[in-house]
Amino acid sequence: MINTIQAHVIGASRYSMDNGVKGAKITVMQSASADNENVLGNQVSVMTAPYEIFDQLHASAPHMPCSMELDIELRTSAASAGGKTTIHVIAARKPNATGSPQQQPATNSDKK
Fold first, then answer.
1. Neighbour tally for 54: CB within 10 Å
2. Of 27, 34, 67, 82, whose CB neighbour count within 10 A is largest?
3. Domain for residue 98, yes or no?
C-alpha cells in the first residue's frame, strides 16, 4: 500500500556498486514525540529509495533542508534477514499547496 507523507528532508545520497546493485537513501528529520519521555529535540530517520529518486531531488537541493511530499511504502525483509521493516520512498516532490487561496488586496475603483 502506498501512502503520501509530508517530511522535512535534510539530505539524500545514492550509490551504485560494481555488482549492479544501486539505490538511494533519503534522510528526514522530525520533532521528537512529546509522549516519549526518553527522547528530546529532533529525530533523524533514513529511508531507502530507488537510484532515480536522487534526480527528482536535484531541484530542491538548494532549499534543503525543506519540506517535501513523499510517496512511501513499507517493506519487510525476509524472516531470515531479521524481518526488518523499512520505509521505501517511491516518489518525491514539492508539497502541494492546501487551504483557501490568498485574497488579493482590494483595488480602489474610486480613483479618477
1. 20
2. 27
3. no
